[in-house]
Write a structure and sequence with these properties.
GO terms for molecular function: chorismate mutase activity; NAD+ binding; prephenate dehydrogenase (NAD+) activity; prephenate dehydrogenase (NADP+) activity. This protein is α/β, with parallel strands linked by helices and 342 residues long. It has a seven-stranded mixed sheet, sandwiched between helices.
Length: 342
């Protein structure tokens, strides 16, 4: 019998469903506007909630109250209702007003999206907002997310939204501004600094670009964060425009970024860079391992011809980058054949 009821089967709902399946957690879903597989489809709220312990509300924030009102007559004290919205003040207010003490509820925000899940990016982190009306709700939500392999961070709804306004909302704001201004993301001679930024733009565009308005409008702290950013950018723009064509070092002192010094790097920095890259390699191996497990569950074992083509491709990549193709192939043979990695 399914133990999780999933209300909403949009982009995030589908991604969460895949995560539940990977963790062998049974669930049933309901969404009148989506095509659901027969095996998980519920035709009514009572059918959806039958045997469920957790009720995950994965709908846009403006629809939250309407959905909670539809659920309310069918909820029992053993149910735990949690939302997955990217803002927390408004959903928590809605759950408090609609559900109150009737059934346990808690606000949560998974800090990952469909694209990051598809790419097996780790770690997966989730913010949980403890609920004084239902002290056991947050621990239950924590156990649920930890069963999915997530790290849990506890925060107040206001504290969460303030942080998201300064990070999530501003990232989307800057990315949309660059997209709308016609910035070319895919250019062959862009510096490394822009390539890192372009990846952020593409992630925003593909992972949650459709959430832009909600992230900006539903977070009451986002407007102030945008205004502060725009004021700072305008000040920088005015300062640059006021500089003479040939500016002295003294005239440009105020434009320097604090904490950035000139001069040759210390020898220890090379070791630190190597350690950082090794850490990234281990994280990439973990992601590769997860994707390989998904592939093995979905498909038959790869044929020898496919494995041979895989190694040939890696040899070609090595040659392009000036590495020894034989050594790179040997490395990938270890990776592919290693239990739990390949």
């Amino acid at each position: 019998m399914p133990k999780i009821a999933l209300v909403g089967y949009g982009r995030f709902g589908r991604a969460l469903g895949a995560l539940l399946e990977a963790a062998d957690l049974g669930y049933r879903a309901m969404d009148p506007g989506a095509a659901l597989p027969e095996a998980i489809r519920a035709g009514s709220v009572p059918e959806l909630l039958e045997g469920a312990e957790l009720v995950v509300v994965a709908v846009p924030v403006p629809q939250m109250r309407e959905v909670l009102l539809a659920l309310k007559p069918h909820l029992r004290p053993e149910h735990l209702v949690l939302d997955v919205g990217s803002v927390k003040v408004k959903p928590v207010e809605a759950m408090k007003q609609v559900l109150g003490a009737q059934a346990p509820w808690v606000g949560t925000h998974p800090l990952f999206g469909p694209l990051s899940l598809a790419m097996a990016e780790r770690p997966m982190r989730v913010v949980v907002c403890p609920n004084p009306l239902h002290p056991d709700a947050a621990p239950r939500a924590r156990r649920f997310y930890e069963a999915l392999g997530c790290e849990v961070i506890e925060q107040t709804p206001e504290g969460h939204d303030r942080v998201m306004a300064e990070t999530h909302a501003l990232t989307f704001f800057v990315a949309k501004g660059m997209v709308d201004s016609g910035v070319a993301v895919d250019v062959p001679f862009a510096p490394a600094s822009f390539k890192a930024l372009s990846r952020t733009i593409e992630t925003v565009r593909s992972d949650a670009g459709h959430l832009f308005t909600a992230i900006q409008q539903e977070n009451r702290f986002a407007t102030q964060a945008r205004e502060r950013l725009l004021e700072a950018l305008q000040a920088i723009h005015r300062d640059l425009a006021a500089l003479p064509a040939v500016a002295s070092a003294r005239q440009t002192e105020g434009m320097a970024l604090p904490g950035l010094a000139s001069g040759p790097p210390e020898p220890r920095e090379t070791r630190e860079h190597i350690d950082q890259l090794d850490r990234e390699l281990v994280e990439l191996l973990a992601r590769r391992s997860e994707l390989a497990r998904r592939q093995s569950r979905a498909h038959a074992p790869e044929e020898p011809a496919g494995t041979k083509a895989l190694f040939a491709t890696r040899r070609a990549w090595a040659k392009e980058l000036g590495l020894d193709p034989e050594e790179v192939e040997a490395l990938f043979r270890i990776i592919v054949e290693a239990p739990g990695v390949g």
